[in-house]
User: Fold these one by one.
Assistant:
Number 1:
Amino acid sequence: MNIYCLQHVAFENPGTIKDWAEENHHSINYTYFFEDSFVLPHLKNIDALIIMGGNMNVDEEKEYPWLSKEKELIAAVIDAGKKVIGICLGSQLIAAALDSKVYPNNEKEIGFFPVQFSGGALNHPLFNHFTNPYTVFHWHGDTFDLPTNAKLIASSQACQHQAYLIGNTVLGLQFHFEMNQVIIDDMIKHDGKELEEAGKYIQSKPAIQNSYQYLMKNKKDFFTLLDKFFA
């Protein structure tokens, strides 16, 4: 399988998705929007699409002109019935590409916080290996209305729309299953000033780094989800 990854900033790469792809002998190709020479892929060259996070917003097209083309590509890949996973900004871009509203959430959510999987999700074959509550890493300030025909998969106290599924081909994840310590440390290095903001759901750098024990379980459970999603 040829996985295509849309990466918006250098310090947010696919993380454990790369590990999973390597173990399963899948290839990953990239569009790096942070490089001036980026090239968008042809639809025929995409078996599955991964859309990563980033510190921009979906509507900042004046500052990031490529956003409009990216949303057009996402819509085309979805229309073609190919598998799509959007993470954080990626989940918001899917929503925007499908004409759903994306807007600031009431609270920023940064750090390790639990999500609750819906009853429907816990009985769904893709998610029935999860249990509630489930602690995972977050770094987001925006949220979105669910796209048409999307099923809500998970919520948190800070953010109702944490994950959604459209059919069996499109998965939006507001939180970060794919994280490893290196990526989180790089995110803190580049965007750590946000940790100084007052917020009920913003953890300190030490609190985040003292919670890295969750990452191993996240990786294991995410691999199981990827196995099922791409089966």
Note: The chain has seven helices and nine strands.
Number 2:
Amino acid sequence: MELVSIIMPAYNASRYLKESIDSVLAQTYRNWELLIVDDCSTDETAKIVQTYEDKRIRYKRNTTNLGAAKTRNEAIRMATGRYIAFLDSDDRWLPNKLERQIHFMQEHNYAMTYTPYYVITSGDTYRQIHMGPRSLNYYQMTRWDRIGCLTVIYDSQAVGKMYLPTIRNREDYGLWLLILRKGITAYMLEEPLAVYRSHNGISSGSKFALVKYHYEMFRIALGYSAVVSALLTLRNSFYYVLYTLTDNKSLAS
């Protein structure tokens, strides 16, 4: 049974952190390490982690606030497992998530996989399910990020230990593209095995910021020219609307 390293950045995460950790402890797949890197939280994050005595949980606190990308990368540097998985400190997994997904990867010799996931509100109301396509190559992924970070597992033996680009936002999207640019195809296990907590919608201001972040990802993280980065970002805007309509299925009664 191969070791899975679970990457969990935490910043003022005390409200939902216990739920996230408990969802890892409940996994039917037992060979994992949970790497929690605290990005200088000022709440009870550290105290919550200290209540757990499971030696598979490893905690580190940054000496300065580094942001999401560098904090995740610090956890990846700590990782000793073959498989690298991601779970944010306010999300959670279903109990059979690792068992089903690792089996899926080993059965088909896949280097990167993801799954559908449920979307809930802060009040734990199940709002929708995000599906996505059955597979994604690099070109398809440049259109729009259709993968939930909390569902991804990649095989570091197959692709190497890959790190997130240190950009201000959309660093997870940048990582998927860097992996797929190696000629890898990502495959979806068609079972919703994770629960993503949505805190708010996207305002018009944040939509503008999202466009900027995507441009920076193409320009800085992937090294495209200014013109190509702008064109890819414009194409993103079109596919954002298209995939929002097709990938998300409402669970409202």
Note: The mean pLDDT is 93.
Number 3:
Amino acid sequence: MRIFITGIAGFAGSHLTEYLLSVADADIHGAIHRHNHRIQHLLDRLTLHRGDLRNALWVRDLIESIRPDAVLHLAAWSDVGGSWQQPWTTYELNIQCQLNLLEAVRRTCPRAPVVVITSNEIYGLVRPDDLPINEETPFRPNSPYGVSKVTQDVMAFQYWQSHNLPTLRMRSFNHIGPGQSDDFAASSFARQIAEIEAGQRAPVMHVGNLSARRDFTDVRDVVRAYWLALLHGEPGCAYNVGSGRSYAVQEVLDKLLALTDASITLETDPARLRPSDVPVSVCDNRRLTAATGWRPDIPLERSLADLLSYWRGQTHGGDL
């Protein structure tokens, strides 16, 4: 099976690639734009193609040369908070890149299933009576990132409706684990702890809104859901991916602080507060579970311990 992965060197993409190499007899190709350090240890088992998904001609030629049997589209701008400062860049990367990819697949290998990764941010300002959030919850995006993900989601559905291209939409809730960028709260906390332990910063942790409740799932469970959906999901369908349980960001921070002996004080950083934030988000994952049998296996405590270990290794190794 020839599989094409965009965003192969990203946080989720690297974990997906490692997982597929362990479970699938596959010829894996990946699109890469910048660094490949997350997949350095896998390079002898992959075929990488360096280029820019915003270039429609490059994407068309690449798909024609690979002719994949399946596509997993993970490349994206993923920083929700940063989308407020760079809304156009967010739209360009998340919308244009997917459009170029779907057009190329439609023309070259229209029977290849395409897994498109959107986000729970498409639901935006959910109401208490919306919880837990299922796939029929209305879209009320409240960030430029959320708007871009709504567009990706609806575009994928339109290609199924108009062209019979077998797309599947994976609406992922918050996922965490080793290798995550510190643009995200849990990873930012873990990096700050590691740097404080190493004496690289004062023992003060900068935090944002700690009262928000989020549905956290380990990235290794999330990418397994992507693969199971590709194998067993219904083309044209959308699937929420999440644990089905919410935690306050304060709880996540407390669990991380319990893993260190460092004495740390907290300081709220206004720059880490979003113009609009959702108080509670929790996933209804029953559609995915019914279709694929997927359930999350990795507890939050292990995810956080592995994340902190990752940042300790990065900090002490000097590879920041």
Note: The chain has nine helices and 13 strands.
Number 4:
Amino acid sequence: MDAALFGLIVADVIAAPMKVRTPPDAGGLQLIETIELTTGGNVPNSGIAMAKLGAKVAAAGAVGKDVLGAAVVDRLKQAGVDVACVFADERAQTSATVVAVEPGGERCFFHVQGATTLLDAAAFRRCFDLFRRCDWVQIGYFGLLPALTPDLPQLLKELRAIAPRAKIALDTVNPPAEWTLLEPILPLVDFFAPSRTEASALTGETDAKAMVAALRRHMKSGLIGIKLDSEGCCLDDGHGAVFCPACKVDVVDTTGAGDTWFGALLVALQKKMPLEQAGRFANRAAADCCTALGASAGVKSFEQTVARL
């Protein structure tokens, strides 16, 4: 297995276009063009993107025993993602988000954590048999896993012991959890790639190289990335930073672009691409994601993505 993705499995209700800055009056009605039920969270967003890019991927996490959970699991199966470690639990509803897509493609979120709150140390250990068969284990999001995050340093040490060949990637969210929680985790991961906003919140820096330097003081080895929105990305493997420009597209919806970028970079690393080419590949996939409504619809095949670098 190329990768296992552990963390948020979310049902997204995407509404577009919504003028959230100028809502209707109380009791009023605003007509929009589309409302769609799709998948969200790092597990489906990165996982489906990776599957479309040709990777063998497994999902790991929890959903509720409800209609939304069944729909999300079915979507993952249809995309070719292994769901043996997606556990249905009656203690909570499936995590869900209303995604309000504004004219121009920007979006804001209204989220209920639901089954995500059940992801704790026991849930993580339940997936160890899967993790030991994978080249990468991605965990996300740092900031939305309150029951798991304090135990991650110990859990990652255990994972290292039972799956020494697996590399560990950590994804985060805006706003991330506290720096004091991240500090003992960073030395144990192989890839950490916050957005510019998230990296600034964690480090207090505003320049990409300064952000990398601040993180590198605690993460001595491995790959650090900074997602720079319309400016592309910065990647540093400990031998100097490379900057990869973004790809210009007509934006329909930016939902899932960061997760697609993360998953595409994992695919590129699996393919042993040079670092700059890997960054350009991830940027291309993320740009494609923005050309269709939803987190994964715009992602192309590996061959189509490479052909347009």
Note: The chain has eleven helices and 13 strands.
